[in-house]
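Entry 12.
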Amino acid sequence: MVAFTTTLTALAAVFAVGFAAPAQTNDLSSTNPLNIGEISWSKVGYGACDVTSKDTDFVVAVSTFYFNAADQCGREILVRHGVNSAVAKLVNCCSACKLNDIVLSPAAFEKAVGNLTMERVIGAWEFI
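Predicted 3D structure (tokens):
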């Protein structure tokens, strides 16, 4: 009986190692978490990515947290508000923004929100 119990315990240990859950990592480079924050709009011009943009361009500025995380210039962001959405290119940093807040160009805001009459809305965005 002792031999049977020892063998059973050894087999259980082998199978437990073989079917262990994958290790957790802090690397978010391959994931696109959905961010909820305040979305506003502003006239655009020369940005922190050394790009001059026009109000008709679909561009975005993110908080310093996201901007300084890595080389973010030129990345695309999908912005959603209700049933509307828009894709904008990251060209600037918003030092006044809270963590998940973004600032869109007028054209991108109008597409993502529906109109420019609302200056700020709560919406969702993610890197794509």
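Annotation: The helical segments are 2-18, 64-67, 106-113. The mean pLDDT is 83.
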